[in-house]
Amino acid sequence: MSARPDLTSVSTAPAADRPTRGRRLVVVAGASVAALAIWALAGPVAGIDLTVRLNGADQQVGAGAVIAASLAAGLAAWASLALLERLTDRARRIWTIIAVVVLVFSLTGPLGAAGAAGMAVLACMHLTVAAVLIPGLTVRRRG
Fold first, then answer.
1. Is residue 16 pLDDT above 70, yes or no?
2. Is 114 exposed, middle or buried (0-12, 13-18, 19+ CB in 10 A)?
3. Per the count of CB atoms within 10 A, which of 12, 23, 26, 38 is most buried?
4. How many CB atoms lie under 10 A from the CB of residue 43?
């Protein structure tokens, strides 16, 4: 008898419960679009100063930074969830706890904003990205 792995037991979740790559990609893109929409409404439209102090220098938060940061966060979130799904049956629960802790720490970033309005807008962007990613990446597909 050979000791070949049983390939039928690779995933115990029914196909309807497994998330698809395409849906997760849409969630990550959606988080970036949502953050960019807030940036566009608050900055260019409403004229709120979205300047932050980084390493002793003032830096304007532009559309590129918003897209890059939200995409990086989304892709890191997706990768870490996918890794946990391979390692444990409680991946969604563990990942959600980690995601909320990361969100709390990320909210220290807007504290460097030039003004209160900018701080509120940047915090809103962080919260919006989390509000899209956390439930969006962990929801189970309906059959």
1. no
2. middle
3. 38
4. 20
Nearest-5° angle of CA 44, CA 32, CA 105?
Answer: 95
Distances in Å between the Cα of 93 and the Cα atoms of 67, 73, 89, 90, 107 are 27, 18, 9, 6, 22
For 80-130, what is each residue's pLDDT tens digit? 999 999 999 999 999 999 999 999 999 999 999 989 999 999 999 999 999
pLDDT surpasses 50 at 74:
yes
pLDDT of residue 7: 47
* DSSP assignment letter at 10: S
Name the token pair of 14: 């029914």
In angstroms, what CA-CA distances link 139 with 19, 30, 65, 136? 8, 15, 28, 6
> Higher confidence at residue 57 or residue 19?
57
Buried b (16+ CB within 10 A) or exposed e, 45-77: eeebbbbbeeeeeeeebeeeebbebbbebbeeb
Buried b (16+ CB within 10 A) or exposed e, 4-15: eeeeeeeeeeee
